[in-house]
TrEMBL record:
Residues 4-129 form the Phosphotyrosine protein phosphatase I domain. InterPro entries: Ptyr_pPase, Ptyr_pPase_sf. This is Arsenate reductase ArsC. PANTHER family: ARSENATE REDUCTASE. Gene3D superfamilies: 3.40.50.2300. The lineage of its organism: Bacteria, Bacillati, Bacillota, Clostridia, Lachnospirales. It comes from Blautia parvula. Keywords: Arsenical resistance.
Length: 136
């Protein structure tokens, strides 16, 4: 069976969606393909997120990821929005949900760690639902 493609989306594609893409690839690449994108880009991925992901998971997000626009990723099956304080970007998909995560940008490491742990939990939960055919 073809693996579904999942897009993790937030406005700037520089923090939460990048973390979700990295953890999706790390934990769930056998179940779904992970992408991230936004309606705007930043010159680099959030450096606090990069540092903490290296410390926690030994994942160097800057090695294979960069901030990209929605138009730069393939057609996806599942869209996960991170929690937008403004209008959430929309792209066609078979299934969509919002994770309602606060943006930790500019906050302390504890706030980042809470968001990273929540994304980790949600990735594992999403993986089980896709694996068990509960979504799409």
């Amino acid at each position: 069976m073809k693996k579904p493609k999942v897009a993790f989306v937030c406005v700037h594609n520089s923090c939460r969606s990048q973390i979700a893409e990295a953890l999706g690839k790390h934990f769930s690449s056998n179940i779904f393909e992970s992408y991230s994108a936004g309606t705007e880009t930043k010159p680099q991925i959030n450096q606090d997120a990069v540092r903490l992901m290296k410390e926690m998971y030994q994942i160097d997000m800057e090695k294979a990821q960069y901030s990209k626009l929605l138009s730069e990723i393939p057609q996806v099956d599942i869209v996960i929005t991170m929690g937008c304080n403004v209008n959430c970007p929309t792209i066609p998909c078979k299934y969509r949900e919002d994770w309602g995560l606060n943006d930790p940008t500019g906050k302390n490491d504890d706030e980042f760690l809470k968001v990273i742990e929540e994304i980790h939990f949600k990735i594992l939960e999403l993986t089980k639902r896709v694996e068990n055919g509960l979504i799409i």
